[in-house]
Amino acid sequence: MNTSTSRRNFLKGAAATGAVLMVGVTPKGVLAAGHAGLASLTPFVKIDEAGTVTAVLKHFDMGQGASTGLATLIAEELGISLDEIEIEFAPHNPQVYNNLFFGPVQGTGGSTAIANSFMQYRQAGAAAREMIKAAAANAWGVAASELAIVDGVVTGAGQSAPMAEFVAAAADLAVPEDPSLTDPKDFRLIGNPTTHRKDNAPKITGQAQYAMDVHLDGQVVAVIKRPPKFGATVVSFDASAAEGMPGYKGAAALPTGGGVVVYADTTWQAFQAREELTVEWDFTNAETRSSDQIRDDMLAMVNSEPEFVARADEGTDAAMAGAAQVIEKEFYFPYLAHASMEVLNCTIRPDEDGGVTLFDGCQVPTLSAGALAQVLQMPMEKVRVETLWAGGSFGRRATSEVDYNVEAGLAFLLDGGQRPVKLMWSREDDTTGGYYRPAAAHKVRVGLDANGRIVAWQHQLATPSIFKGTFFAATQVVDGVDRSSVEGVPDTLYDIPKMTMGVSDFQSPITVAWLRSVGHNHTGYVMETMMDLAAEAAGVDPLEYRLSYLSGEGEERARMREAFQLAADTAGWGTPLPDGHARGIAGMFCFNTAVAQVAEVSKDEDGYVQIEKFSAGVDVGLAVNPDVVEAQVQGGIGFALGFIMRDGIGFDEGEVIQSNFHDYEPLRVWDIKDIEVAIVPSAAPPSGIAEPPVPPAGPALANAIAALGTRVTMLPMAENGVDFV
Amino acid sequence: MATTITVNQTERSLISSEETPLLWVLRDELKLTGTKYGCGVAQCGACTVMLDGQPVRSCQVAIGDIAGSDVTTIEAVSGVEADAVRQAWVEMDVVQCGFCQSGQVVQAIGLLELNPEPTDGDIDTYMGGNVCRCATYVRVRKAIHRAAEILAA
């Protein structure tokens, strides 16, 4: 066998029927191309003989727009319009569909989807373009360099024909090793603010398929009665009252002790049958504290010696002792539920080969497949993942334990594993189900000299660790400090001359997880509140004060300065406002993105506060889809304001108090009048945008409200002295 | 006795018991999954459908109470207002995760059928029951104004 051609021959042999050009990468990350039907080739782009182009999306889409972004990268390089490209979610394959920032893990998170795919998807599109051009050049007897693809038509050297005509021939050609990428000055789609999302049509006609929309023949619906307090377990249960109810199929205790699963033909029947269940719980290891006690315990911890040290600049204490003025504040942030519109759910189907398929709005397929492989005692390769549109997540669909996938796996096993099982959560399950943004207490002392300049910063934090006890701990916990607890403080871009930071882990069975922007969503509030207080004490404009602490070297500081300036310019910072109005400013650099925001609020005669407007300046590097970036900033601000204004998961002797949207009240349309977003022009590689707009929103609002007289450091605001309209 | 209702212009004889909420009949029995479950207690609007021409929360309507009624879901809602709303929703790229958008679209159509030139205040009042956890609200408002413009043209 001639080894140099064996692969090509294999490719040809594998393509028995249906000419489809596929371009992807090998497990070693090298570009590869070939025909359809080749099991070993898992493409990023497919072009069939009718010329239909499909982008295969290695990232899921929870609304952040990754599907539009990845399709844009392919379409740009291929020379087609965004209307001409179809999209589909990739199957699970951690060798080729891995997130390049995550190692051999396929998954979406940390605002990385576009950043890690930017070159990879462009290269795939460019390789497909070059192969089609080469096939056309061969057919016409001209040089490929004379040809271009314009709106799906191969054109040049006096010839013109639809791309589709060359798909079969192109699939026989060798893939270019290093296809030339489109010069950014020639971008038609990347950076174009007038392109539209790929998911508009299916989502306004009811056609988009979410996991909840999966209905398989012979399926049974499973719902779980979970412990009323975190850490409690099932002792026994009695389901006799459900016997004979329409559709009721039985009940079984989860072997984990984590609940009792109830089966029925339909969702409604399952919910009804669960109502009839009585369960005896073992509360020996359960959380039994109430919210006030939990808060007081955390506040006590920030007033005690910390367990771990996150930053310890020499001479901080001495500098504090010599400060002309010390500003001291305590902060508290309650637990938060993610409360995605689509409650958690997924379906597991048995397959003929003894494996299963998981249907899920799956955020990290490698975690899900790995967890199910363990539960179901089968190799991970036998757990297929079919990713569907996700109705939000904000991090909840990606917990380390992928709790709801594991529940579904257990429910599937307990049912006998012979028919599809659809696990459904109710809104009440979703609100009380844990994996919350951890509560956090901070105590900060900022020492100023006689000129109002910061000489020392002492910071204490108490919060439950997200990463400890998970396999992420190896990389995310250093010297006992969970990076996700403290991020945004010891690594602040502000040039604080001397800082100490101590951390203590709050222990509780209440499960916690990352929520959109993770630690930054509380540390940002604290940092930007303290900077405002320092500016006030110094008698300096809060924007000017911040910029003076960002004047040092470094690209990140430069980007943060630009974002601040752009937000300020957009808001008309410093221009006169009507009586009763005030502005506040805040910013944060996270996920390699700089975001600054200005909030404008008003207070009426009765003391009610209305959020008039937010203005944002963002540096995301090159904005692949500027309109999606704008939407993420608008949405991130709104998401944050909802919980800053009025959300918190509270506990009554360990039981979650809130249950649904009436008492875990999201932002509503009347809460904010307008959000204007300005994007810093940039040619730098794209970073991420789903998370970075979240942290500044709270402190920008807090700083604006403080300018009207009320400084809020205990959240949510509505329970701590602020009345919103 | 089976309940009969007209869904998207087709008469359907239902096997679900009469206390079953319309939402779950649409989703689980009729497989019209465009109508979404968000809260089950009329706090979010994701399940909004047209019942005899009026937007209602289908999670609160037992099918036994609407025998003989006419239900139109997101899959089939039509007319000049529906066309205008959909066009505006695309122009403004309103959707993010999209899970609430079936309800937002049906509710917005209901608003424009009632009031073809809504003010911001009208929008706040009429759309206030429709939750969007992605917080697409600024664009929802702009898209409704845009749909009103399209209708007026």
TrEMBL record, chain A:
<feature type="domain" description="Aldehyde oxidase/xanthine dehydrogenase a/b hammerhead">
    <location>
        <begin position="205"/>
        <end position="285"/>
    </location>
</feature>
<dbReference type="InterPro" id="IPR008274">
    <property type="entry name" value="AldOxase/xan_DH_MoCoBD1"/>
</dbReference>
<dbReference type="Pfam" id="PF20256">
    <property type="entry name" value="MoCoBD_2"/>
</dbReference>
<dbReference type="InterPro" id="IPR012368">
    <property type="entry name" value="OxRdtase_Mopterin-bd_su_IorB"/>
</dbReference>
<dbReference type="Pfam" id="PF10518">
    <property type="entry name" value="TAT_signal"/>
</dbReference>
<dbReference type="InterPro" id="IPR046867">
    <property type="entry name" value="AldOxase/xan_DH_MoCoBD2"/>
</dbReference>
<protein>
    <submittedName>
        <fullName>Isoquinoline 1-oxidoreductase beta subunit</fullName>
        <ecNumber>1.3.99.16</ecNumber>
    </submittedName>
</protein>
<dbReference type="GO" id="GO:0047121">
    <property type="term" value="F:isoquinoline 1-oxidoreductase activity"/>
</dbReference>
<keyword id="KW-0560">Oxidoreductase</keyword>
<dbReference type="InterPro" id="IPR000674">
    <property type="entry name" value="Ald_Oxase/Xan_DH_a/b"/>
</dbReference>
<dbReference type="InterPro" id="IPR006311">
    <property type="entry name" value="TAT_signal"/>
</dbReference>
<dbReference type="InterPro" id="IPR052516">
    <property type="entry name" value="N-heterocyclic_Hydroxylase"/>
</dbReference>
<dbReference type="InterPro" id="IPR019546">
    <property type="entry name" value="TAT_signal_bac_arc"/>
</dbReference>
<dbReference type="InterPro" id="IPR037165">
    <property type="entry name" value="AldOxase/xan_DH_Mopterin-bd_sf"/>
</dbReference>
<dbReference type="Pfam" id="PF02738">
    <property type="entry name" value="MoCoBD_1"/>
</dbReference>
From TrEMBL, chain B:
<dbReference type="InterPro" id="IPR002888">
    <property type="entry name" value="2Fe-2S-bd"/>
</dbReference>
<keyword id="KW-0479">Metal-binding</keyword>
<dbReference type="InterPro" id="IPR001041">
    <property type="entry name" value="2Fe-2S_ferredoxin-type"/>
</dbReference>
<protein>
    <submittedName>
        <fullName>Isoquinoline 1-oxidoreductase alpha subunit</fullName>
        <ecNumber>1.3.99.16</ecNumber>
    </submittedName>
</protein>
<dbReference type="GO" id="GO:0046872">
    <property type="term" value="F:metal ion binding"/>
</dbReference>
<dbReference type="Pfam" id="PF00111">
    <property type="entry name" value="Fer2"/>
</dbReference>
<feature type="domain" description="2Fe-2S ferredoxin-type">
    <location>
        <begin position="1"/>
        <end position="77"/>
    </location>
</feature>
<dbReference type="GO" id="GO:0047121">
    <property type="term" value="F:isoquinoline 1-oxidoreductase activity"/>
</dbReference>
<keyword id="KW-0411">Iron-sulfur</keyword>
<dbReference type="InterPro" id="IPR036010">
    <property type="entry name" value="2Fe-2S_ferredoxin-like_sf"/>
</dbReference>
<keyword id="KW-0001">2Fe-2S</keyword>
<keyword id="KW-0560">Oxidoreductase</keyword>
<dbReference type="Pfam" id="PF01799">
    <property type="entry name" value="Fer2_2"/>
</dbReference>
<dbReference type="InterPro" id="IPR012675">
    <property type="entry name" value="Beta-grasp_dom_sf"/>
</dbReference>
<dbReference type="GO" id="GO:0051537">
    <property type="term" value="F:2 iron, 2 sulfur cluster binding"/>
</dbReference>
<dbReference type="InterPro" id="IPR051452">
    <property type="entry name" value="Diverse_Oxidoreductases"/>
</dbReference>
<dbReference type="InterPro" id="IPR036884">
    <property type="entry name" value="2Fe-2S-bd_dom_sf"/>
</dbReference>
<dbReference type="InterPro" id="IPR006058">
    <property type="entry name" value="2Fe2S_fd_BS"/>
</dbReference>
<keyword id="KW-0408">Iron</keyword>
